């Protein structure tokens, strides 16, 4: 492909308007996620508790903005002032849960629809991560960690509000904490945030800005599609295992075991327990 | 009644000073609610954990303002800067929990006292909803949903902080979520918020402003008293059932059942479960 | 000791630079607390969930600032902008959890190291309480209760975030609420806050400002060391029991029992239960 043309495409992607089509795709997947999280119970629940159902769907849709605002001391409700997004979200929620004969849900679950919506959502995710990093950089120009946290939260906010979202529906699952088993989306948003921060704050990345952005979009869409179509769920896993082995004790633990200190260590931890 | 005189009364109600008598009534009902929520355990708990007892009572008293501030990016602790209210609340808490021979509690439970306090609290509630809507309207002049949310939260804040309030006392009841089974107060505050927003932002309500306010006060007091005296707990219920039947799937579900698709639907939801 | 020299020492203590040595001590004790809270599970957990482990350690380290900011409407993430503290905290966390053969942990647990770190942490605590009270006083010059709350939270923030910290690690212990059984650190921070507020806002304390500060430092360090070395855990207990007996019903309850009303009271609380 001609590099010039490629850069042109990249420049177009960076300027894509999100409203309303990307918002529809995002809301659609959010409503589907809520419905599938409810499991076999979804039909009955949506009839009995429409308010809780609507609120938890809105929370999933606006999670990133709300959590980021909450952590940056800005109004948590501010994302709701975008009336257009709110109406789109409400309409999509209604279609997924309440259309006659469940037509809306069945259409949304139809594979081609899901693929298109997922691809659009990943493009939206890249934009959100990018905006999040930019916003945090304006507030704290030297605090890389805050930029990375906000970028990650904007990219996969719903992962971090899952506990609250379920709590709104009266379910409490404290072990389903995102930090314990970060999903692929969290890891990808984290990686994208780090790349955006490096691109913004250092000279290490020499590629034009639009290309970096486009590269992340392609990366996100590619892995999302391979997750749906090929069932590859976490391409980061090998890298992580390597990292854990080197930095987080894997090698040393093995060495300690080989040297016959494995038993001693078990003893140690028992001591700790007694001291408590 | 003479319309002129009626409007005069309405104008007086809108200018009523809340401090200190209405604050006393509000605090009294809050402390009673905490005490009754503790159940048979209340005496022992208040002796063993005065700090947790005081904190959870304060949370109930200031719930509306704190939650609304938290969601609007304002200081959560700000309501506490009102020293007068804080002292009144603390005094009432002390009287309800610690007076010799439990005199304070018995007086507070005495029906006429409870009726007067409840009526005063409803007048206070109307004012809080009104102030909440006005405050949100100043911040987000076009975001109706934010005005309605803040009005509702100010009107029945304690309902939404019940989980945190119990958590302070070491109890965790995730299924007691207000959104799942909104109480009459939440629904009434919601309705009042919507009416105030319509009155403020549209020309649909032609009645003078003071009359609208007075009407809501009467509505709230009337249903509170009929709830205490006659045991009518939720006049919204018939309306809700109608609404659910029309908009949230009731009719379509019945139709689907009649057409013999009820079984198919059950099958569907089982599939969803398997996919998870 | 010469009063002049004493005042000199006090003036030096008040100007002590905290970074980096006091931050190292504070982070070390925070990481140890996380590790001991994990119990026998710590080794395995830190290998499997490094992210959750790091996040919960950071939460413990920055708890005071984050909670205080959250309650004052300031950015919760702001404490993280202090890159130096963040790096120190991360390095200490790494040393405590991942050094080969667990050397870091063993050194940190070594009694003399722990004593020095604890003493330094108490000096740091005094400074945090002082800064917290000063910060709140700037925002709300007349709201004593807010100054006291913020001072206490800054002094023992980790106590109040314990629930969230454990939640990050996928554990939920709602009964471990700090308000139910305030630890010695909470009570000492509360007392220190009250003294600082009195010193700042009234003329009741005639001692020079530096001396008050130094007195609180000595008080905190002294009781910390006696807690480690002598096993005295809560010098406030006798005072509290006295206070409860006088103000929170102890005497009246005994009197009521003597007058044979104890049974009647039990009956009362059963009635309450029925009414619920």
Detailed description of the structure:
3 copies of one chain form a homotrimer. Chain A has 276 residues and is mostly helical. Chain A has one domain. Helices cover 75% and strands 0% of the residues of chain A. The first copy, chain A, is globular, with a radius of gyration of 22 Å. The N and C termini of chain A lie far apart (64 Å). Chains in contact: A-B, A-C, B-C. At the B-C interface, helix 3, helix 4 and helix 5 of B face helix 8, helix 14 and helix 15 of C. Chains A, B, C: It is a multi-pass membrane protein.
Name the beta content range of chain A: under 5%
**Helix/strand/pairing category of chain A:** mainly alpha
Oligomer: homotrimer
Mean pLDDT of chain A: 89
Q: Distance between termini of chain A?
A: 64 Å
Rg of chain A over CA atoms, rounded to whole Å, is: 22 Å
Largest interface: A-C, 40 and 37 residues
The largest sheet of chain A is: none
N-to-C order of helices and strands of chain A: HHHHHHHHHHHHHHH
Helix percent band of chain A: over 70%
Shape of chain A: globular
Number of domains of chain A: 1
The overall strand count of chain A is: 0
**Tally of helical runs of chain A:** 15
Unreliable stretches of chain A (pLDDT < 50, length at least 5) are 262-276
């Amino acid at each position: 492909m001609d590099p010039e043309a490629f850069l042109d495409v990249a420049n177009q992607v960076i300027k894509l308007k999100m409203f309303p089509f990307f918002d529809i795709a995002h809301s659609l997947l959010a409503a589907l996620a809520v419905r599938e999280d409810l499991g076999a119970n979804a039909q009955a629940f949506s009839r009995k508790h429409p308010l809780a159902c609507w609120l938890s769907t809105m929370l999933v849709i606006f999670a990133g903005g709300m959590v980021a605002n909450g952590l940056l001391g800005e109004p948590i409700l501010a994302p709701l002032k975008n009336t257009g997004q709110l109406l789109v979200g409400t309409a999509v929620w209604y279609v997924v849960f309440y259309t006659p004969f469940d037509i809306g849900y069945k259409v949304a679950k139809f594979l081609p629809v899901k693929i298109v919506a997922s691809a659009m959502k990943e493009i939206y995710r890249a934009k959100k991560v990018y905006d999040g990093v930019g916003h945090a950089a304006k507030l704290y120009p030297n605090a890389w960690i805050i930029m990375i946290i906000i970028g990650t939260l904007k990219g996969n906010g719903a992962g971090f509000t899952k506990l609250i979202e379920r709590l709104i529906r009266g379910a409490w699952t404290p072990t389903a904490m995102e930090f314990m088993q970060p999903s692929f989306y969290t890891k990808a948003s984290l990686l994208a945030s780090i790349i955006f921060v490096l691109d913004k704050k250092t000279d290490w990345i020499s590629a034009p800005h639009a290309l970096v952005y486009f590269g992340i979009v392609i990366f996100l869409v590619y892995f999302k599609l391979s997750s749906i179509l090929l069932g590859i769920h976490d391409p980061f896993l090998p890298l992580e295992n390597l990292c854990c082995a080197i930095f987080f004790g894997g090698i040393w633990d093995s060495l300690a075991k080989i040297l016959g200190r494995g038993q001693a260590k078990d003893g140690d931890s028992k001591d700790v327990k007694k001291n408590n």
